[in-house]
C-alpha cells in the first residue's frame, strides 16, 4: 500500500465505509442497545473515514500504518460479530414449534430479518392463523430454510468478506515470508537438501544402470538436476499466480456477473478464454491417441472437421469453467466427479497413459495452490502447510513427468539414435543381429503370425510369405506404436487373427564395413561417464566404451 494508492482509492474507500456503517445500523438492531462489538466496529469505520478525510502527504508512513492497523482491528471485530451471529442462530436445528417460536422472537429483536426476506413474517403469521388447514405442511423445515439463508447472508455479506479477504492476503504473505526466512536462516540445511535432491533424483533415474562418473561431472549433473526440477514448480506457481491476478482483477471488475444465454457465458472475461485454451491444449496432448482413434471412427479426417472438433473441445471447457465460477455447488460436484474419474482411470488405464500418477500429482499440487489463492482463511498454519504440500506435489509430479525430456535435452540420456558409428574393432553382444534379415522386414506389408521363429507376413502384392527369423532379430510394437519388450522371453508366438494385433518394427541391428560399424535403432539410456548404456528395440541392454565411438547422428 502506497500513498498514491490510498489517494487514488480515497473516495471509494470512504463510500464503502459509509455503506458498511449503514448496513450495520440497518441489519443489527443491537447496535441501538450499545452492543460492544457492533459499537466498536462502527467506531473503527468512522475513524477510518476520518483518517482518509485528512490525508497528510508529509506523514504518509504514519497514516498508512494507522490504516493497516484499523483494517486489522475491523477484521477482529467482524470475527467477534460473526461468532455472535453463530451463537444466535445455533438453535436452527430445532424441530418443534415452541423452540422455533422462541428463536423467531429472539432473532426479531436482534436482527432486521425483513431486510433479507420480505415474506418471512407474512408466512409465519399466515401459518399461525390457518395452521389447522396445514397439518401436513412442514412449516418447521420451511422456516428453518429461510433462517438458514438469512444466517448465511449475514455471515458472508460483501462488507465482511472485503476485510476477511484483506486479512487472508496479509496472512498468505506472512506464510510465504516465514518459509523464505526458514530457508534463509538454515542455509546449511537448504544447501544439503538442494544437492541431496539432485543426488536422489539421479540415482532413482539410473538405479538399474548407475554410471560411474568423475567428481566434477557428477557435481554438474546433480546441480543441474536440482536447479531444473526445483525451478519447474516455481514457474508453474508463478504462472498460476499471474492467472489468479487476472481472475481477481476481472472478479473485482464485475466481469463474472453478466453473460450470454442467461449468464452462462462470461464473454467479457479474458481469464476464462486463456484457461479454456490451456485446458483444451492439455487435454488434446494427453489424449491425442484416443482423440485420433475417435476421429477416425467418425471419419473426421479433413482439416475443416478437425478444426470444428477442436473448437468443440474448447467450448466444452469454456462452458464448464463458466458454470464452475457461477455455481458453487457445481464446483463441488465437478471436483468429486473429476476425482472419481481420475481414480477409475488410474486403475483401469494405467498402462495406456504413461506417467498418469505424476500427472495426478501435478494437478493436485496446482489445485492446492489455487485453493490458497482463492480462499479467505486467516490461519497462517493452514497456508504454510498447504503451500508446502502443493510445492512438494509439484516437485514430485514435475520431476517424474519431465525427467525423460529434461535429461534428453541435457544430453544425459534417454536419447533415440537412428545410428551411431563405432570403431571396426568394437565387439558387440551376440544378442545384436547383423542386417541379414533387414531387407525382408522392409518389404513386409502386414504381419500374420510368428511361431517357432517363423514369421508369416503379406507383401505389397498381398501374397503370403514365410521366413525363418530368430526372435532376437525382430522387434514388435502394439497398435499404439509402443515397443514390446521381448528380450528374455522364450517360445515367442503370436497370431494376429486370434490375439490382439501387433506389428513388426525395425529391430536394432548393425552393418559392418572394413573400417567401421554402424549400429542402428538404439536408445542411449545414459551418456554419462566413459561408457554408453544402450537399449535395443527388444529391451536388451548393454554397454559400449565411448572410446570406440567415432561419430553419431541424432534421429
From TrEMBL:
Keyword presence, Transmembrane helix: yes
Keyword check for Glycoprotein: no
Transmembrane segments annotated in the record for this chain: 188-207, 219-244, 265-287, 307-325, 332-350, 356-375, 382-403
Protein name, per record: Membrane protein
Entry keywords, A to Z: Membrane, Transmembrane, Transmembrane helix
Amino acid at each position: 500500500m502506497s500513498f498514491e494508492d490510498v489517494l487514488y482509492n480515497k473516495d471509494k474507500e470512504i463510500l464503502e465505509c459509509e455503506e458498511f456503517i449503514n448496513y450495520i445500523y440497518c441489519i443489527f438492531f443491537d447496535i441501538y442497545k450499545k452492543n460492544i462489538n457492533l459499537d466498536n466496529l462502527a467506531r473503527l469505520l468512522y475513524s477510518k473515514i476520518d483518517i482518509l478525510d485528512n490525508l497528510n502527504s508529509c506523514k504518509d508512513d504514519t497514516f498508512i500504518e494507522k490504516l493497516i492497523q484499523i483494517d486489522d482491528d475491523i477484521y477482529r471485530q467482524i470475527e467477534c460479530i460473526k461468532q455472535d451471529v453463530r451463537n444466535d442462530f445455533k438453535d436452527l436445528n430445532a424441530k418443534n414449534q415452541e423452540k422455533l417460536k422462541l428463536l423467531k422472537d429472539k432473532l426479531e429483536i436482534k436482527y432486521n430479518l425483513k431486510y433479507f426476506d420480505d415474506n418471512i413474517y407474512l408466512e409465519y403469521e399466515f401459518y399461525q392463523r390457518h395452521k389447522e388447514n396445514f397439518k401436513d405442511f412442514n412449516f418447521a423445515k420451511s422456516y428453518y430454510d429461510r433462517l438458514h439463508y438469512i444466517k448465511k447472508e449475514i455471515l458472508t455479506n460483501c462488507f465482511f468478506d472485503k476485510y476477511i479477504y484483506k486479512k487472508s492476503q496479509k496472512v498468505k504473505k506472512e506464510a510465504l515470508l516465514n518459509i523464505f526466512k526458514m530457508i534463509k536462516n538454515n542455509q546449511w540445511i537448504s544447501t544439503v537438501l538442494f544437492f541431496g535432491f539432485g543426488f536422489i533424483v539421479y540415482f532413482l533415474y539410473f538405479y538399474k544402470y548407475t554410471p560411474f562418473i568423475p567428481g566434477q561431472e557428477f557435481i554438474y549433473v546433480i546441480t543441474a538436476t536440482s536447479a531444473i526440477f526445483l525451478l519447474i514448480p516455481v514457474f508453474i506457481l508463478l504462472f498460476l499466480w499471474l492467472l489468479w491476478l487476472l481472475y481477481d482483477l476481472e472478479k473485482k471488475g464485475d466481469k463474472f456477473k453478466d453473460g450470454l444465454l442467461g449468464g452462462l457465458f462470461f464473454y467479457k472475461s479474458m481469464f476464462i478464454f486463456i484457461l479454456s485454451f490451456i485446458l483444451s491444449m492439455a487435454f488434446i496432448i494427453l489424449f491425442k491417441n484416443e482423440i485420433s482413434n475417435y476421429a477416425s471412427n467418425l471419419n473426421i479426417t479433413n482439416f475443416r472437421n478437425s478444426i470444428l472438433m477442436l473448437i468443440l473441445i474448447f467450448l466444452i471447457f469454456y462452458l464448464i469453467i463458466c458454470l464452475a465460477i457461477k455455481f458453487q455447488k457445481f464446483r463441488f460436484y465437478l471436483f468429486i466427479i473429476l476425482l472419481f474419474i481420475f481414480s477409475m482411470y488410474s486403475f483401469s488405464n494405467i498402462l495406456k497413459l504413461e506417467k498418469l500418477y505424476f500427472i495426478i500429482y501435478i494437478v493436485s499440487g496446482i489445485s492446492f495452490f489455487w485453493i490458497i489463492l482463492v480462499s479467505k482463511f486467516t490461519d497462517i498454519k493452514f497456508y504454510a502447510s498447504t503451500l508446502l504440500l502443493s510445492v512438494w506435489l509439484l516437485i514430485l509430479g514435475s520431476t517424474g513427468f519431465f525427467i525423460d525430456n529434461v535429461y534428453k535435452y541435457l544430453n544425459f540420456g534417454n536419447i533415440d539414435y537412428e545410428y551411431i558409428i563405432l570403431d571396426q574393432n568394437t565387439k558387440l553382444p551376440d544378442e545384436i543381429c547383423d542386417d541379414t534379415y533387414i531387407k525382408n522386414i522392409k518389404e513386409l506389408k502386414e504381419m500374420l503370425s510368428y511361431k517357432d521363429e517363423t514369421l508369416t507376413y503379406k507383401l505389397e502384392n498381398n501374397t503370403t510369405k514365410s521366413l525363418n527369423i530368430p526372435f532376437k532379430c525382430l522387434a514388435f510394437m502394439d497398435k499404439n506404436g509402443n515397443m514390446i519388450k521381448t528380450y528374455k522371453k522364450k517360445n515367442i508366438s503370436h497370431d494376429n487373427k486370434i490375439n490382439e494385433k501387433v506389428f513388426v518394427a525395425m529391430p536394432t541391428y548393425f552393418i559392418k564395413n572394413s573400417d567401421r560399424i554402424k549400429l542402428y535403432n538404439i536408445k542411449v539410456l545414459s551418456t554419462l561417464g566413459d561408457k554408453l548404456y544402450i537399449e535395443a528395440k527388444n529391451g536388451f541392454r548393454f554397454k559400449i566404451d565411448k572410446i570406440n565411438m567415432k561419430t553419431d547422428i541424432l534421429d
